[in-house]
Amino acid sequence: MQTVKTVDNCIVVFNKDKTKVLFCKHKKDPFKGTLNFVGGKVESGESPEDAAYRELQEETGISRRKIRLYRLMDMRYYHQDLLLQIFVGQLYEDITMVEEANPLLWLSLNDEDFTDRDRFACAQNITHIIDIARMYPLPDCTMTQDGLYIGVDGCKGGWIATILEHADFRVEKYDSIEALVNRYPKFDAFLIDMAIGLCEHPDQHRPDKEAKAELKSKASSVFPVPCRQAVYETTEEKQKEANKRVLGKSLAKQSLAIIPKIREVDEFLRSHPGYKNVILESHPEMAFSRFSGQVLLSRKKEFLGFSERSYILSEYLGDGNDLLKKLSSKAKELGCSPDDVVDATCMAVTAAMKAHDMCETVPAEPEKDSTGLLMQMIVPKMMR
Asked: How big is the chain by its Cα radius of gyration, in Å?
């Protein structure tokens, strides 16, 4: 993102029951007498998260111990050279607030007309922000700490697994899926960024088409999945021929490259029926898109994309800016790419969300392949 002259934030604060939203009444121009969210300027060298918590405490007395903030969206005003960073959070308990300069008041989410331009500053934006904030799936602050959640991504020479076990956060590398499951035979949720459920004729339907349509300009991150006949062929030429014969199209280099890992997962699930439709497929870019409310256009193999995704995950893991350092350090230690580590961690967070009924399937009514495996992706619920 290009540097902007001014960075501001605003914070949407819900009460404990999420029936009211907090506003302040401006005493000074340019919005004197009107209502707006609390917020202010981000200081030089200050992280967006730290700035939001600082402003919230200064204006209301609400501290980090009383609320967990999540980055909801950004608004870029090019004519003003301004970036507005918007956060949302829900109070853990009812509290007495301490006003700084502007009076504070709680407004009912159901009874107020937030489009009233005479009462609300930038009413059109406020209405839009509230609509999105109300639908944002605010997780409990302990969501990733109350069970055993596993997220897995393929890497050179094996698999990267992020383990969220109660309050413990670990990133580990395994030579095989079997070795990983032998280490953690029981878990609350297990998601993997690898195709599960394979077509064997052209009338069968995997989730790839829906995922591509949702990701739009990032659709290329969803690789075409080979048919089962191709997966079990022995050479690339035979794999391409088999896929063309069954599905009517050949295979690109990216799809050919992941065939050994698709085969490994398929063989494991077929030989361990207890894990069938228990170890499930997901997709990191789909998850990140739904975490942030928009498709991430940055490249995760580059530092900007890696840091953007690390920051999004930190909102769920509570590690703040330290998560970027942790994931980078783990990638170096394990000899893998940083994007493999961030994807595995994304899968683990999504697994925790699944265990808390905050996920859905793509497509909504998935088919089963000939072996009984569901052809689906598990992703965070869409904000509707």
From this structure: 23
